[in-house]
Amino acid sequence: MSASEPSTKKQRTDGYVLYYWPGIPGRGEYIRLAFEHSGTAYTEDSDPSKLLPTITDPKNCGHPGHFAPPALKLPSGKFISQTPNILNYVAPKLGLAGDKWVKLTEKQKNGDKVDIGSEEYEQAEEERAAVNQLVLTALDLSNESHDVHHPVAVEDYYEDQKEESKRRAQSYRKNRLPKFLAHFQKVLESNPANKEGNTYLISSKTTNADLVIDGAEFAFPRRTAALRQSGKYEKVFALKKRVESEGGIKAYIEEGRRQPFSQGLFRHYPELDGDD
Amino acid sequence: MSASEPSTKKQRTDGYVLYYWPGIPGRGEYIRLAFEHSGTAYTEDSDPSKLLPTITDPKNCGHPGHFAPPALKLPSGKFISQTPNILNYVAPKLGLAGDKWVKLTEKQKNGDKVDIGSEEYEQAEEERAAVNQLVLTALDLSNESHDVHHPVAVEDYYEDQKEESKRRAQSYRKNRLPKFLAHFQKVLESNPANKEGNTYLISSKTTNADLVIDGAEFAFPRRTAALRQSGKYEKVFALKKRVESEGGIKAYIEEGRRQPFSQGLFRHYPELDGDD
């Protein structure tokens, strides 16, 4: 950049950089899973003393600054944030936006052009929106899992809202978790691509939607065991098992790089769990 | 459709159809504002006895079914749901995804092709992601506003969780609302397109991000009045005023078609409000 050019924080990088807190999987994990599944290179910048200044100050990250991590620096130098937004942005590039976008990308690789006015682009965008929709619903569940241990004030300790947490946990175990599981079970049952026992939420490939169904088993082992035993949600549990056995995610787990859940978004407090 | 074709619920329609609960603005209002601002025709289907069967059963809405309203039926016949997903999908079509997408759309209208491998498409998608990011952050605030009156169980009445609501309201008024307002104020200050007193969150046009900053003044009139008086968030309040004076939204309000807030997402309970 010449000295006379206006300052811009968009500097091209070699690849994707994830900005997130160290030590917990948290919401950053959903981004990691997308990169790991697709085998796409990314690095992490998780110095906790620099994280917030880097991503919230537009002098460092460009306009607009970000409300909270995770943020992702794109190869163009642009930063984006909000977990479902990051996933939706990278989905076509990582092959996680469904069959139709994968086909468009293959055409591109063969040197063919794909016009944004074409029917094939329209249909791929509709499928990408279905993926994003399912991702948002799964993230709603994970947000509700978080709110079980923080029902009244996100800035206070769990220990200062234990009584309210117990009440919210009852609602979560009895009503909310089964409602979400029933939704995803129904989606797995109605996917026409699942005729031969496949467990894809949408299209005939793993998408971001499949990768974000996670966490409840860690936080509520007794309740999820009981729900599993009911046999009503077997496709949802099968989906999770299938994802963990697939290429990139399998390696991520086996190489010990996946951080265990601990005290982040999902937390296991035995007093909040129960068989029903 | 011939009798031998497999049943598909994707039937072309004349336009967009919004499926949402009657009688409250709720989350459906964010979708209405996008259509109203851009002057794009849409109809509503809000028969409460048919709403959930229509949008949750894939026999009626196609795969995948939806977790909750609002849902939008596209002209292609496809249904999509999740408020931020609907907004992100329609944003380029309604001119609400930022300057760069508007330019692409103009090129299209002139009969020019826009390839998904082009730099101009890449940059427009980055800007669209910035819009979506800001929308998601504003919707996080509206979700937190909802959780103030439903901190422990969404399926129970407010009256059954009043004590917990009071505690959550304190956190919302003191910490959360100011934190979000400060974020949007900072975004308005750093937007290079706002040099001449403009109040766009991103680019030099109204986007979906500008349209979703709403609701807190109804639910917490005393607290928002105090925050307004502090002078720290004047650009955010100016944004809201500007949006309400713009073409489509102005007509929507003046023609009496905009429903008042009542007992939905945003609720005014005086006991949850306060000057600080």
Number of helices of chain A: 12
Oligomeric state of the chains in view:
homodimer
Order of the strands making up the biggest sheet of chain A? 2-1-3-4
Number of strands of chain A: 4
CATH top level class name of the domain at 119-247 in chain A: Mainly Alpha
Q: Can you tell me the overall shape of chain A?
A: globular
User: How would you characterize the largest beta sheet of chain A?
Assistant: 4 strands, mixed
Domain GST C-terminal (chains A, B): 124-272
Domain GST N-terminal (chains A, B): 14-98
GO molecular function, one term (chains A, B): glutathione transferase activity
Protein name (chains A, B): Glutathione S-transferase
Summarize the structure.
Chain A is mainly alpha-helical. Chain A has a domain at 119-247: Glutathione S-transferase Yfyf (Class Pi), Chain A, domain 2 (Up-down Bundle), CATH 1.20.1050.10. Chain A has helices spanning 28-38, 48-56, 58-61, 83-94, 99-109, 119-149, 162-190, 208-211, 216-219, 221-229, 234-244, 247-254; strands spanning 16-19, 42-45, 71-73, 79-81.
Topology (SSEs and partners):
Two copies of one chain form a homodimer.
Chain A: E1 16-19, H1 28-38, E2 42-45, H2 48-56, H3 58-61, E3 71-73, E4 79-81, H4 83-94, H5 99-109, H6 119-149, H7 162-190, H8 208-211, H9 216-219, H10 221-229, H11 234-244, H12 247-254
Domain GST N-terminal (chains A, B): 14-98
Domain GST C-terminal (chains A, B): 124-272
Organism (chains A, B): Cerrena zonata
